[in-house]
Amino acid sequence: MKTVAFVPMKLNNERLPGKNTKPFTNGKPLCHYILNTLLKVKGIDEIYVYCSDPSILLHIPRGIKFLKRDAALDGSHVKINEVLKAFARDVAADVYVLAHATAPFIKAKTIEEGVDGVCNGAYDSALTVIRQQDFFWMDKKPWNYDPKEIPRTQDLKPLYRETTGLYIYERHLIEKENRRTGEHPLLLEADWKEAVDINQPEDFVIADALYNYSLQKGEKIYE
Asked: How far is CA 28 from the centre of its chain?
């Protein structure tokens, strides 16, 4: 069974220009962190950066392969599944590990747990989620509680939000069903740090502060 990890990137981001190669204060370019974490994961046969701009090669660590993708996939209206299907056509594998540079704090052991779960056949996919027990509203009405009998938050039924940082899936899901999660997914419960996802300028400010706080405390960035 062949397992391939890939990190799709574009360098013309609209909300935060150049975010994938933007360095943390006292740190390295953003893409450096998830790529080095993937290098520590057991069970992955190959790791690719999937990008239309070869200049990304300046930021790729040794051991990571570069695959040039069609620049048309960089369009603002392109959906992520179009990128995933294109990669599956370019690189054959039984299992794909999709990771993002914008989720720099995902741990190697979390990825490894997902890879093991899918590759041993126990699950058809895996994804990182964060557990939430809060009061939610929908259509201007309370959605998950009765306002006449407000429960303790710890007694609310947990909801799980996708962090969008990591997906692991069998080939047939994206190739034949156009999806990255199957009918029997493994939910990898991420901690608040792993759930960081950088899209807006303020997201980067928060992640940068977290990175430097971890440095100050002497915590490992890669686990």
From this structure: 19
Domain ranges of the chain: 3-217
pLDDT at residue number 170? 98
Residues 73-109 have pLDDT tens digits of: 998 899 999 999 999 999 999 999 999 999 999 999 9
Q: What is the total residue count of the chain?
A: 223
Whether 38 and 110 have beta carbons less than 8 Å apart is answered as no
pLDDT in the model for residue 17 = 78
Phi first, then psi: give them for residue 169, nearest 5 degrees: -150, 155
**Is 209 in a helix, a strand, or coil?**
helix
* CA distances, 10 to each of 16, 21, 22, 33, 135 (Å): 11, 10, 12, 16, 36
pTM equals 0.94
CA distances from 5 to 35, 87, 92 (A): 10, 11, 11
**Among the CATH numbers 3.90.550.10, 3.30.56.70, 3.30.460.40, 3.40.50.880, which is that of 3-217?**
3.90.550.10
